[in-house]
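Holo prediction. Input below; ligand is adenosine-5'-diphosphate.
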Amino acid sequence: MVIAAEALSFSYPDGTHALAEVSLEVRKGEFLALMGANGCGKTTLLKHFIGLLKPSSGRVLLDGKELRRFEDREIFRRIGMVFQDPNDQLFAATVEHDVAFGAVNLGLTEDEVAARTGEALRLVGAGELGDKAIHALSFGQKRRVAIAGVLAMEPEVILLDEPTSGLDPRGTSSIMHLLRKLNRERAITMVVATHDVELVPLFCDWVAIMSRGRMVGEETPQRLFADTAMVREAGLRLPRMAHLAEILHKEDGVRFPAVPLTIAQARRALLKLMEGRQESEAGAFCRVDGEEG
Ligand SMILES: Nc1ncnc2c1ncn2[C@@H]1O[C@H](COP(=O)(O)OP(=O)(O)O)[C@@H](O)[C@H]1O
Ligand SMILES: [Mg+2]
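Structure of the complex:
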């Protein structure tokens, strides 16, 4: 286990009950999606995981020890958070200064900071942006720089709040591939808050679904999206391919052995069904021939 919430409840000062008895375990090395409709409590939960908000009741554990017993410095060294809006995260004048900021605060040597900053920028594909003024970056570039700043700290866990919001399809795909690569190759545990049901089956090992401040279920993407009622009750929709399979089943009687979630899965399933159909059509011809003979 890395991070865990145990019966976590939280109310904002204005009285909004944002989390109600939320329990969730984030396991070392996994790529976890935290899903749910707007306002269900994803951001609030992520902020608890890094100690920016303190539970009204219940607790957050880091490696089995209560988070509030850790020094902030230790938490920020081990856990990084990428905010939904990069403008909330970036504040230095230039890209290089911004990315270096966290690493400087870790007390690293100048050389070490420079090495980490350069590598983090290269990793996010922003190697050439070092001297650029933050205010002159595009939104997508800002998101990359914000991620680089977190990477330069070399955390064990990265929490990302809707990392693809506001990005075009290419930007979305490249950010998600980057996160998966970091997860697989550097064993960084990823927790991604998102309501993008198309991305989750492609990139995530495990999904936790929240609804109105509660945790309503957690599963592999395959099993979770098979529970169509739960997904819809949580204010989410099915992945397009799963929706297509549902319509083909209801309207046309086509049975899928497993709900396809991605284009690749749907393609395989449809090819299988077509093969089966061709075989049974061929079989029907044989029988007819036989009877006549
Ligand atoms: N600073 C705040 N003060 C009061 N209520 C808030 C604040 N931030 C969020 N909320 C409320 O808490 C609930 C959960 O919000 P949030 O965690 O941002 O949801 P999500 O990230 O899933 O969209 C919502 O009802 C939201 O209006
Ligand atoms: Mg949010």
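Strands lie at 3-11, 17-26, 31-35, 57-62, 65-66, 79-82, 157-161, 189-194, 206-211, 214-219. That is the main takeaway for now.
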